[in-house]
Amino acid sequence: MEEDWRRDLEHWLEPYLQKLGNKTRRRMCPAYIAGLIGPGDRKSIQPIAARADALSYDRLHHFIGAGIWDSAPLEATLWGQADELVGGDKAWLLISTEK
């Protein structure tokens, strides 16, 4: 069961990881996100690193603390996926609060 959600997460993250560029970032990102959304009550860097098999606290801390990268390619990927979900560039998304 645990491997299923991790596999799904890695599949979902795939287009975003390509935009991160750096190989280390591409490895750290899934581990960090899995630590945030996965099992475990504490979601800070130290417990996430402790729960991850091949992840050191120092590397994860550097990824979060010094994570300087261009967010524009990541945002463009997100916008593209959102467009696909609502039907493309010409589609409209209407949200009604009426009951």
From TrEMBL:
InterPro entries registered for this protein in UniProt: IS701-like, IS701-like_DDE_dom
TM region(s), chain numbering: none
Transposase IS701-like DDE domain span: 16-95
Protein name (Swiss-Prot/TrEMBL): Transposase IS701-like DDE domain-containing protein
Superkingdom in the source lineage: Bacteria
Organism: Sphingobium lactosutens DS20
PANTHER family xref list: TRANSPOSASE (PTHR33627:SF1)
